[in-house]
Write a structure and sequence with these properties.
Largest sheet: none
Shape: globular
Strand content: under 5%
CATH topology of the largest domain: Farnesyl Diphosphate Synthase
CATH class of the largest domain: Mainly Alpha
Oligomer: single chain
Number of strands: 0
Structural class: mainly alpha
Helix content: over 70%
CATH superfamily of the largest domain: Farnesyl Diphosphate Synthase
Number of domains: 2
Number of helices: 16
CATH architecture of the largest domain: Orthogonal Bundle
Radius of gyration: 19 Å
Order of helices and strands: HHHHHHHHHHHHHHHH
Length: 284
């Protein structure tokens, strides 16, 4: 009965992921069968944290929710039972795959920036944020795929995740602006002559495009460097977001690096095929 309950929980995580994070849902279902539900559990945890800022009416409530997750991870580390299905699944995942709890806690800490609506000061700060969120998530995914991941492989996974995170921030700019949040780097926006209110009012003008191009170039460089590395075939499932980022960068380029342009962030029906091709080739 316990095994049946665990299976039901992980299927529930996969269904929740389908609603909250379409890209990583596809990454999970394109993975080999023995990794699929474990990756879905990890990605569902990330989606839960990432969604907190949009679900609360004031920052303090978001900080309280993040503290709840810190306490839940403390319970997990101490071996204390927990009623929340996702915490139970994470406990099972940590036990079987050896996921580092400090990385899981780091994902919680990084989301404080979201609930406080803190804008990165510059491109370096934006990259650090993407690394602390999507980059760390990719490293955790690598731990699921490989029990003996080397430090070099971890660096590659984190780099690919960070690049995907940067591209995701560019694509999400209109959504974030609608929710009064700006994640594009402040210094670069000022240098380009883009005022915060222009973004919040959906009137950024052509001055925004050089900023987007600069962030996109950084993501592209990181992807190019990471794709030159050769990781074991089994690790490829952890790197799937990088394959999507390559296509998403091209989509942004075709729309003149304007995230507000219609179609610049439209989902592609080719994504699942891109991921399956990456799995078949053993590289992204």
């Amino acid at each position: 009965m316990e095994q049946i309950a665990k299976g039901e929980h992980r299927l529930r995580a996969l269904e929740e992921l389908r609603r909250t994070d379409r890209d990583r849902f596809l990454c999970a279902i394109a993975a080999p069968a023995d990794l699929r539900l474990d990756l879905a559990t990890l990605y569902a945890f990330n989606a839960e944290l990432a969604g907190i800022a949009d679900k609360v009416s004031e920052p303090m409530l978001g900080l309280i929710r993040l503290q709840w997750w810190r306490d839940a991870l403390d319970d997990l580390a101490a071996g204390r039972p927990h009623r929340h299905h996702l915490v139970q699944d994470l406990a099972d995942l940590v036990a079987r795959r050896g996921l580092r709890l400090d990385l899981l806690r780091g994902l919680v800490d990084a989301r404080e920036r979201d609930v406080e609506a803190t804008q990165p000061d510059d491109l370096a700060a934006l990259e650090a944020y993407a690394g602390a969120t999507a980059g760390v998530l990719a490293e955790l995914a690598l731990e699921i795929c490989l029990a003996d991941a080397t430090e070099a492989w971890r660096v590659t996974a984190r780099r690919i995740g960070t690049a995907y995170g940067l591209v995701g921030i560019l694509r999400a700019t209109p959504y974030l602006a609608r929710n009064r949040r700006i994640l594009l780097p402040a210094r670069e926006l000022v240098a380009a002559g883009v005022a915060r209110e222009q973004l919040l009012e959906f009137k950024p003008g052509p001055q925004l495009q050089p900023v987007v191009r600069q962030v996109a170039a950084r993501a592209g460089d990181m992807l190019a460097a990471a794709r030159r590395e050769r990781l074991p075939r089994r690790a490829v499932a952890a790197l799937f977001p990088g394959r999507l980022a390559v296509a998403q960068l091209e989509q942004l380029r075709r729309h003149g690096y304007d995230p507000f342009a219609a179609g610049s962030a439209a989902p592609s029906g080719l994504n699942i095929w891109r991921l399956l091709a990456a799995r078949g080739l053993g590289r992204i």
